[in-house]
Write a structure and sequence with these properties.
The protein is an alpha/beta fold and about 375 residues long. It is built from 11 helices and 17 strands. The strands form 3 sheets. Strands 1, 2, 8, 9, 10, 11 and 17 form a 7-stranded mixed sheet that branches. A 7-stranded mixed sheet has the order 6-5-13-14-15-12-16, with helices on both faces. A 3-stranded antiparallel sheet has the order 3-7-4.
Length: about 375
């Protein structure tokens, strides 16, 4: 027996679940299929969310930790502190957030079919058949990651340039929780950065490099000795994955098929950030599909292609980053005024952050910490 849906979404991560929730709220019959056993399994992202995403979407504060600044380290361990008044990032309990998003989509009316693998589909005039799953869709959405099988099967645009990332989550380390700690180092992270993030009840330590270079997680752990005690770390979990850096792919879809999220390449080529665009354009894709199926609106993929960001300047910057400048050059340039301005713009866009304001910002934090109840210290143990 063939089960019929208005929309079938392949992939149950940020983009797919945002699309599913909005489509279901608009009255469409929606199914999400994903090979994972459950929404929080096999997470492949560091899960950092920018302020803009928090402004656009209501996400649960209990699953996030606010981080207001960036401390950027040169290879020689000198550090540049960056911030912008009113701005912040959110580190997240990413598996928990995935489960919450899945619950929201399900409450809206979407049917979640986890443990189901996409094996191919056939597009025809009135929809898309997925015979191996016994499903039929009026419209098929590929939200199945950087190496999308939907894109491959339908001859759509495919990602060609990637960063390869590795991350471990460990019991909390004693690092300054006001900052995302980022390391510019072409030996351990050629073409990108390494990081240590104060997460939700843990510390995230990761590194990424432009392919075919390999990220050096061991080198990062040696670097971390300068800022915290890493002799005894208990690793809780590990993550790895590919981050597309080639910009939006093309074509993005056909008459009854469309790509969103990492599959569509809506990821910043410079920072690798894609959660905000995944949520925003996952929701937008659902709106366009609803208009198309219910109200004879325009073909969704063509409108979607006009609206997604093109990343022209960031693609040019990605080409420069791929050259992986030697560490001696990074040491010489990072603390200069032009590089500080560039770093400020990359992390905080056009928002300012002059040194005097930063000192006042730090003092306010120190005053708040003195007035807050002391938290119990955490003792780390060897695995």
């Amino acid at each position: 027996m063939i089960r019929k849906f208005d929309v079938v979404i392949v992939g149950g991560s940020f983009a797919g679940l945002a699309c599913a929730r909005t489509a279901a709220l608009r009255g469409l019959k929606v199914a999400v299929i994903d090979a994972k056993a459950e929404p929080g399994a096999r997470v492949c992202t560091t899960g950092i969310i920018v302020k803009e995403a928090c402004d656009d979407f209501d996400l649960p504060a209990t699953l996030m930790r606010k981080v207001r600044g960036v401390r950027l380290y040169a290879p020689d361990d000198r550090a540049l502190d960056l911030h912008a008044p009113g701005y912040f990032f959110q580190s997240t309990d990413t598996p928990g957030l995935m489960r919450w998003l899945a619950g929201e989509a399900e409450r809206a009316g979407a049917e979640l079919l986890y443990g189901r693998s996409y094996e191919g589909a056939l597009e025809h005039e009135r929809g898309v058949a997925l015979p191996s799953l016994g499903l039929h869709a009026g419209f098929l959405v590929g939200a199945d990651g950087a190496r999308s099988r939907v894109a491959e099967h339908f001859g759509l645009g495919r990602n060609r340039r990637f960063l390869a990332g590795l991350e471990i989550e460990c019991e909390p380390l004693e690092i300054d929780g006001r900052f995302l700690h980022c390391f510019a180092d072409s030996k351990i992270a050629p073409g990108y950065i390494a990081w240590a993030v104060p997460g939700v009840g843990l510390t995230q330590i990761g590194v990424a490099a432009r392919r075919p270079a390999k990220p050096d997680l061991g080198g990062l752990l040696r670097r971390l000795k300068a800022i915290c005690d890493v002799r005894e770390i208990r690793v809780v979990s590990r993550r790895s994955g590919l981050i597309p850096t080639g910009g939006v792919v093309g074509p993005l879809g056909g008459r009854r098929v469309m790509l969103i999220g990492d599959a569509a390449g809506t990821v910043s080529p410079v920072t690798g950030g894609g959660i905000h665009t995944a949520l925003r354009f996952g929701r937008r894709a659902a709106q366009l599909i609803s208009d198309y199926l219910r109200d004879r609106g325009p073909q969704p993929a063509s409108v979607f292609a006009r609206e997604v960001p093109r990343f022209r300047m960031k693609l040019a910057m990605r080409t420069l980053l791929d050259l992986a400048p030697p560490n001696v050059l990074i040491n010489a340039a990072l603390m200069t005024r032009p590089m500080r301005s560039l770093a400020q713009r990359l992390y905080f866009h056009s928002r300012g952050g002059d040194p005097a304001a930063f000192e006042a910002w730090k003092q306010a934090f120190e005053r708040d910490e003195l007035e807050s109840p002391a938290l119990p210290s955490t003792k780390l143990h060897l695995v």
